[in-house]
């Protein structure tokens, strides 16, 4: 089994790696890639157990960080700019802590270097497993199954991007069982030694993923951190306010 991450590469210039969040794929950060590829070489991998990348029973931040480090080495890249959303943000932070020589700058979108205790995704997992169990024949039926478990339309639409036809049934690109079994690892975080790399934390003004409790742990682990709040945006700020997010990222990268 290949353990090389599946990825897409576009543009020329200093390399940027975009890391998606839980239940996502390399397409999730497409709005950012479309703009940044005009000035940078943009690499978007599918993280393990997601998209077209390999599936594995183990799923934690050290392993995911090493997956991305292996990709950087295999492409023979100079130090990269890492931009990660949510789970991808934790992968970026872990990679910078373990292999600082591979990273020039960090942008973390709506995630803190903290252990999270709240299970945000129980209804999501219920819907994902229901689709696997019922083996719907088409996309419309699969979305109806999801709707029995997940109230929020935008969440259903996001998950629906990872549906595909396998034989005569619809199923998921991501490995539901591995993600469910490792969910505590995904919520978890082991504090890292101070990372001296310039870091930008972007928070959605309406999101609770970075709250006032996060300020101390952020500065302890990322002493060169800057923070910016994108007003009237939730956890998916890069999808809700892409121009605002891009403006702040581009300013940070040219400072």
UniProtKB/TrEMBL annotation:
Domain (AB hydrolase-1) ranges: 15-242
EC number, UniProt record: 3.1.-.-
Single annotated GO MF: hydrolase activity
Keyword Hydrolase in record: yes
UniProt xrefs under InterPro entries: AB_hydrolase_1, AB_hydrolase_fold, Epox_hydrolase-like
Keyword Ribonucleoprotein: no
The protein's name: Esterase YbfF
Source organism (scientific name): Vibrio ruber (strain DSM 16370 / JCM 11486 / BCRC 17186 / CECT 7878 / LMG 23124 / VR1)
Gene: ybfF
